[in-house]
Design goal:
The complex is a heterodimer of chains A (124) and B (167). With 124 residues, chain A is mainly alpha-helical. Chain A is built from five helices and three strands. In chain A, helix 3 links the parallel strand 2 and strand 3. Chain A starts with a helix and ends in a 6-residue tail after the last helix. Chain B has 167 residues and is of the alpha/beta class. Chain B is built from three helices and seven strands, in the order αββββαββαβ. In chain B, the strands form two sheets. In chain B, strands 1, 3, 5, 6 and 7 form a five-stranded mixed beta sheet that branches. Classes of the chains: A mainly alpha (124), B alpha/beta (167). At the A-B interface, helix 1, strand 1, helix 2, helix 3 and helix 4 of A face helix 1, helix 2, helix 3 and strand 7 of B. Strand 1 of chain A pairs parallel with strand 7 of chain B.
Chain lengths: 124, 167
C-alpha cells in the first residue's frame, strides 16, 4: 500500500496512510502517515468503537491539512488495551514448536508451488 | 505485564523475517526501502476535496463485487460506498488473528466515518466507490499493474485526495 501511496503522490494526488506497521510504512517512505499502535487488523480504531474511529479519521484529515513535507508521521494517542502483551505474542516463535513450524513451512511451500503451476501465485 | 513499554512499536520487518526463517524459508523478503519520498500538496482545500478510500481487503467470497470483477481477490477491485459492505474477506492477509478480529469493517475501511465528515463539511464528498489493492509479494507487480490501475480509477472518480488503509 505504501508503494501505491508513493505512486499516487508522484501523479499529483495527495495521500495519507492510516496504518499500524510503522517500520514497514516508514521504510518505504510515504508523504503522510497516521500511525496507530494497534495490533494489525484495525488501523482505523478498535472494532465497534465509533468514537475512536471518528477521532482517527479526523486526525488523518488534519494531517492532510497540516503536513508540509514528505515523511510526516503522526502517532495517535490511542492504545489498544492496557495490557500490551499482544506485542510479544504476534508471530511469536515458541522454541518447543520449531519442528512444527518447519513442517508447516514445508506444507506451505508445496501449496505455493502448486498455486504457481496453476497460475494463481500472488501473495496474501 | 512484560518488559516492553507502550512506546515501543513492533518491528514487523524483523518479526516477519524471523518467523519465515523458522518456517524454513531460505531467503528473507526484502521490503521496499527508499531514502526519498514524494509529496503532493493539496490541490484544493479539504472542504472542497473529493476523497478516495483504498483497502487491502478483498470482497467476501459470496458477495458480488460492485464492479463485476472476478472473485479471485488478487487484482484491483472496487466496491460501493453508497451501500457499504457489511463484511470483507481478510483471512488471506497477515494481521493479528490472536488478538483481534475484522468483523467491524469500519475498523479498517471507514466509509461511514468519512460520510460523517462529508455531513460536517470537513470534506466535500467521498467517491461513490472505494478500491481494493492486493498485497503482492512482487513489488514490480504492485508498481507496474496495481498502482497504475488505482490511479486510473481515482482519476475516473475525479478525486483530489486518497486515504490508504492497509490492514
Amino acid at each position: 500500500m505504501s508503494l501505491v501511496s508513493r505512486y499516487l503522490e508522484a501523479h499529483g494526488i495527495a495521500t495519507v496512510v492510516i496504518g499500524s506497521a510503522r517500520d514497514i510504512v516508514e521504510e518505504c517512505g510515504v508523504a503522510r502517515f497516521l500511525f496507530n499502535d494497534f495490533p494489525l487488523g484495525n488501523p482505523c480504531g478498535k472494532p465497534y468503537d465509533v468514537e475512536m474511529q471518528r477521532a482517527i479519521v479526523g486526525m488523518a484529515l488534519d494531517l492532510l491539512d497540516s503536513a508540509r513535507l514528505p515523511r510526516t508521521t503522526v502517532q495517535s494517542p490511542f492504545r489498544f488495551s492496557e495490557d500490551e502483551s499482544w506485542k510479544q505474542n504476534y508471530a511469536r516463535i515458541d522454541p518447543a514448536e520449531r519442528a512444527e513450524l518447519q513442517r508447516l513451512g514445508a506444507q506451505r511451500r508445496a501449496e505455493q508451488q502448486a498455486a504457481a503451476v496453476s497460475g494463481s501465485a500472488r501473495k496474501g | 505485564m512484560t518488559g516492553t513499554t507502550h512506546r515501543t512499536a513492533i518491528s514487523y520487518i524483523d518479526r516477519t523475517r524471523e518467523y519465515y526463517h523458522a518456517l524454513g524459508y531460505a531467503k528473507p523478503y526484502v521490503w521496499a526501502r527508499h531514502t526519498e519520498a514524494v509529496f503532493a500538496a493539496l490541490a484544493k482545500p479539504l472542504a472542497q476535496s473529493r476523497v478516495a478510500l483504498v483497502t487491502t481487503a478483498s470482497p467476501w467470497p459470496e458477495d458480488q463485487p460492485a464492479d463485476g470483477a472476478p472473485r479471485c481477490g488478487k487484482q484491483v477491485w472496487s466496491g460501493s460506498t453508497t451501500a457499504p459492505p457489511a463484511r470483507l474477506h481478510t483471512d488471506d492477509l497477515a494481521w493479528d488473528k490472536l488478538t483481534t478480529h475484522t468483523r467491524d469493517v469500519e475498523s479498517f475501511l471507514p466509509i461511514r466515518r468519512l460520510q460523517e465528515a462529508v455531513a460536517e463539511r470537513r470534506i466535500e464528498s467521498l467517491a461513490a466507490r472505494f478500491h481494493g489493492v492486493p498485497t503482492d509479494y512482487s513489488q514490480r507487480r504492485t508498481l507496474e499493474q496495481d498502482a497504475p490501475e488505482i490511479l486510473a480509477r481515482c482519476r475516473e472518480d475525479e478525486v483530489d485526495i486518497a486515504l490508504l488503509v492497509p490492514l
